[in-house]
Amino acid sequence: MCSIIGYLGISPAAPIIVKGLKRMEYRGYDSVGVATFSEHHINVRKGVGKVLEVNKAVKLDELIGTIGIGHTRWATHGMVTDTNAHPHPSSSGEIAIVHNGIIENHEELKKELQTLGYTFKSQTDSEVIANLLQYNYDKTKEIKKSVVDTVAELKGNYAFVAVFQDGTLAAARLHEPLIIGVGREGYFISSDVLGFVEYTDEVIYPDNKEFVIIDSSGLKIFDFDANPVQHQITKVSKEFADAYKGQYAHYTLKEISEQPTTILNAGNKTKIEIDLASDLIKHARNLYITGSGTSYNAALIAKFLFSKYAKIKIDPLISSEVQFSPDIFEEKSILIAISQSGESADVLEAVNIAKKTGSKIISIVNMMTSSLVHQSSISIGLNCGPEIGVAATKSFTSQLVVLYKMVDKICDGCIELDLTKVSEAIKKILSNDSKIRDVANRLKDVSDIYVLGRGIHYPIASEGSLKLKELTYIHAEGLPGGELKHGPLALMDSNSYVLIINPNDSTYNDTLTSAREIKARGAKIIGISDKPSDVYDYWIDIPSITESLYPLIEIVPIQLLAYHAALEKDTDPDYPRNLAKSVTVK
Ligand code: BG6
Questions:
Q1: Rounded to a whole number, what is the largest CA-CA distance in the chain?
Q2: Mutation pick for ligand 1 pocket among 191, 318, 575, 581 (CB with most ligand atoms within 8 Å)
Q3: Residue 384 is a catalytic residue
Q4: Is the peptide bond before 316 cis (omega within 30 degrees of 0)?
Q5: How many other CB atoms are found less than 10 A from the CB of residue 467?
Q6: The predicted structure's pLDDT at residue 234
Q7: Mean pLDDT confidence for 190-198
Q8: Distance from the CA of 295 to the center of ligand 1, in angstroms?
Q9: What does the alpha-carbon distance between residue 436 and residue 439 come to, in Å, rounded to a whole number?
Q10: Contact assessment for residue 526 and residue 464, using Cβ atoms and an 8 Å cutoff
Q11: Taking 60 as the threshold, does the pLDDT of residue 128 lie above it?
């Protein structure tokens, strides 16, 4: 997934674009580039690396002109090189484009255009958009017509912004996010409100299969058949402007540290929706819950909560796997879709498959301006503020709180959901940071870590291992405690490190037995528990709390452990290699 942005107004475009790209860098950070229009010429500067590095090297923000486009890349087609970085000019240089998504028929289009004399410099699928626009523009000399003819030929998922040699901006979307900002000093086009929210909170959401043209006469929106379209201007909440690190060294540490507050705020702006959703679920026949990455681990926790406390069966589905079993949904089914960004392509596809059978969609989302919200019957907001760190942290615990609230509603308060206690417990864990840092120090040269949990703690073990993978690049595996002796125990020796999630609840004794079996093979044990034990080589203590609430707190020390181990290993905790905050391509 990449980030795209465009600006047309009275202010110098390049500084605005570079700032917007910096804010959206979590969407992709392989390379960055900007193109501006001035005096009938399009100037392009780009390079491999992060926004600040490339800006320092090639002075992106010093490009001249009050009209421009920009891009940060998460490579899908073609290596990470300067040539494959966006913007891509057309072979005549009269048009330049930035693109997010995948053009599935780029090879055949490229061949056709090459036979017509258009040349290509890059290995990307995106460059075909620039030359196809150029080809159609050369035929009609009309920007609107050339966009209509171009989108008629493109196949795949895309959002692109193009700048033409008369200073006009054109942008189109098909299954990829594209938002328009209407400001006092100009118009903004962006993948995400974060790209321009510091300049305006007035936005327009073009629908799928629509394109916009912005020039000195203003903004016009059309559908792909060239019919004019009107859209309301809506306001986005200014909380999204608050995406600063403050006194923290990294967004990830800031977001981990915000959890005592975000736990208390989770779902608070959509209380009615939680009640409506809980009622719907209570009477549903077929219930499914889906997500990707961390959101899927939250779905696994939901399975335990719904069956244990609400006596309701719910099936967790990995979003990217739903396409292989589309027939599970039926008319009265309900699918709960969990997604921090609300833009993960796999989640949106699972939702589309379910909707085709008439299933109802309940979504649990952080970005309430996202595509998933527009696809849902009911949307519940995490209300935890923007999450910039690519590895999800505060959004995970907020997802859990929303699920707890739904189940607690269905079972008439049987969970005793005391969030103040949870918030206080997390504060205690955060205050134990130096001890966690010491343990993290030992993981510097470790190549494999196993994370163990039983029952509802197994999904937390999965999430813990995901955090370690994402932040430290150490091979980490989440294991159900009881499965150890059926194979994974063969992996244990004196080089192994094992994290044992072992709160003092009904799983305690069995998990301690597993820890003893591992210890007997010489492995090092890191115990996360509110009860010390001589089995642990390193004990990270967590406060005792009501049995049902341990999953809400026991992930926090592992988030911190992964963060500090990342610093030990000199990786970038906010922008791990090869990842992006949410992946909008399949
Ligand atoms: C990945 C992120 O790209 O997408 C993960 O790196 C995240 O942190 C996953 O959990 C799913 O994202 P979302 O936005 O659908 O919850």
A1: 79
A2: 581
A3: no
A4: no
A5: 29
A6: 87
A7: 91
A8: 7
A9: 5
A10: no
A11: yes
